[in-house]
Amino acid sequence: MDRTTCFLVLVALVMVTAAAAHRQGPGFLYTRSRKRCTPQYWSSEREEWPRMVPKYSALSNVFGSGVVERYRANMTLLEAAATEEKGQGYDVEFLGLLRESTAALVNSYARRGYPYASWEVKTLVIRALVSREAAAYQAQQFLEANSNCG
Predict the structure, then answer these.
(1) What is the pLDDT of residue 14?
(2) Most buried among 15, 22, 148, 149, by the most CB within 10 A?
(3) Over the range 61-91, which residues count as b (16 or more CB within 10 Å of their CB) and which as e?
């Protein structure tokens, strides 16, 4: 092969490699699920919950007595992770906070490198219970962390 042909083959190889690196979707040999940190994932019970946050713990035992004003007193973490978008007599903002903060707390124990420590999750939940706006904002922050984790 002459130098020009070798150069063109090398350029084509680099372009194909670069395009493959930017391609979205499963890899050739290894695919990593990015949905392993969501409330839906934890409520499905596909993975064992960390011992520090048993799935049948009451919300008030985990997040403090302040949550009783917004949620059912005997609601468990598993029930919180499985809540739907609407219904159950709660405002949408507080339902979002309930779901996402539960997943955030479990992730803080189960996922190395998760951006929140368990004490941060608990503190932020207590702060977010003061208003719908605060709840919606914090739920969004947890949603982003849960969606981009693991």
Answers:
(1) 61
(2) 149
(3) ebbeeebeebbbeebbbbbbbbbeeeeeebe
